[in-house]
Amino acid sequence: MNAPTVLSLRGATKRFGGLVAVSDLDFDVTEHEVMGLIGPNGSGKSTTLNLISGALPVTSGTITLRGTPITTLPAQEIARRGVARTFQLVRLLPSMTVLDNVRAGAVFGHRRRWGHEAEAHAMRMLETVGLQRRAQAHVGELTYIDTKRVELARVLASDPKVLLLDEWLAGLNPTELEEGIALIRRLRDEGRTIILVEHVMDAIRSLCDRCVVMSSGARIAEGTPAEVLSDPEVIRAYLGD
Ligand code: ADP
Ligand code: MG
């Protein structure tokens, strides 16, 4: 039996004035799959995540979650239905503790948790990302990778069914990168459905079941990482960057 489709985009289009950032984009994401959304800078990947998460309204097209249209729902409602994302530039509250930042994810997410339950859940998510010892630190004192870990823990605390990671591995040194890839692999093995926007080729090769490649807002290729990364049109799109 084929795995069910979790998320579908049909003709998704986003214009910013005269610029078409996302152009008539179609793709499906299957349950438990890691789908790589790749392409050169400015090709529309982050905007696509913004459309899915409801941070930006589509200009036209439809987005469905398990067959139900979510195209026009507000971002909080889409989050409540289990779609959560990290941002390319980490967004945390630096004067709050690590635990409080993660607890905010537990309170506002897909399964709302309160009080002790939210705190215990937030601690479990900090363990998942290997940061339980820093629970009482202020986010402002953390290293870059640790702020990324906190952000991921905050997103995981909302119990997402679909996890959207926007260049979560960017800026990590080689050791941190290995740890980061292992962490995403663990999330995959737990059966999460993930859209991975990523430039790190090793991560794409080792984590993605399938990739959709974007260039100038449009889909130019789709297939396994090996297939798309050897596709002449994809190579041209990256080199032209
Ligand atoms: P990627 O994530 O693939 O690097 P983006 O989705 O961030 O690409 O951007 C796609 C295009 O849309 C770029 O040309 C970018 O400058 C433009 N863009 C993105 N967000 C906005 C915005 N809020 N207003 C105007 N233009 C935008
Ligand atoms: Mg981006």
From TrEMBL:
This entry's Gene Ontology molecular function terms read:
ATP binding; ATP hydrolysis activity; L-isoleucine transmembrane transporter activity; L-phenylalanine transmembrane transporter activity; L-valine transmembrane transporter activity
Q: Which Pfam families match?
A: ABC_tran, BCA_ABC_TP_C
Keywords for the protein's UniProt record, in alphabetical order? ATP-binding, Nucleotide-binding, Transport
SMART domains this protein is in?
A: AAA
Instruction: Look up the domain of life of the source.
Output: Bacteria
Q: Which InterPro entries match?
A: AAA+_ATPase, ABC_AA/LPS_Transport, ABC_transporter-like_ATP-bd, BCA_ABC_TP_C, P-loop_NTPase
Q: GO annotations under biological process?
A: D-alanine transmembrane transport; L-alanine transport; L-isoleucine import across plasma membrane; L-valine import across plasma membrane
Entry GO CC: plasma membrane
Can you name this protein?
Answer: Inner-membrane translocator:ABC transporter related
